[in-house]
Design the sequence.
């Protein structure tokens, strides 16, 4: 069974279904770790004071920029009750806060990592660097033309992932 599940969450209907599927998997295997991420492609600085150790926003990978630094931030600090010490803020973290609220209602613990950059690359890089053995993503909600022109994030993840990928319709 899986030991570390990574869920890409963006508040779309398909990612909400993916979150529900992750919850079902965790009920089957309560020893698995769950990490939830939201990838922002925005080139704006983050309020990094919500993390354990303040970091420069420059350490976060942006599309086409230095690939030496991993595209993820350290986990949000946890209290004894498993709830986040700090409130999640800004557009980048709205999706993570929504997922956290959903999981809190079900008494499920998870780690939350906001990522920046190209969504497929950031998710795959995180999986490669953090011993993830299952990535769960929602199926794209793009039109056929958008998929042809831009490509599908879930398809790109499936092609380059170091582990199994579960795509939820």
Sequence:
């Amino acid at each position: 069974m899986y030991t570390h599940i990574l869920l890409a969450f963006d508040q779309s209907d398909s990612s909400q279904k993916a979150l529900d599927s992750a919850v079902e998997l965790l009920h089957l295997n309560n020893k698995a770790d769950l990490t939830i991420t939201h990838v922002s492609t925005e080139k704006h600085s983050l309020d990094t004071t919500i993390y354990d150790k303040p970091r420069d926003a420059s350490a976060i990978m942006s599309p086409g920029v230095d690939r030496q630094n991993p595209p993820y931030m350290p986990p949000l600090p946890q209290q004894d009750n498993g709830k986040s010490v700090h409130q999640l803020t800004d557009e980048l973290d709205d999706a993570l806060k929504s997922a956290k609220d959903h999981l809190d209602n079900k008494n499920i613990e998870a780690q939350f990592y906001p990522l920046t950059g190209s969504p497929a690359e950031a998710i795959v890089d995180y999986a490669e660097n953090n011993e993830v053995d299952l990535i769960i993503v929602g199926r794209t909600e793009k039109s056929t033309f958008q998929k042809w022109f831009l490509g599908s994030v879930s398809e790109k993840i499936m092609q380059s992932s170091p582990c199994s990928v579960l795509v939820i319709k």
The CA atoms of residues 78 and 85 lie 6 Å apart. The two ends are 22 Å apart (CA to CA).
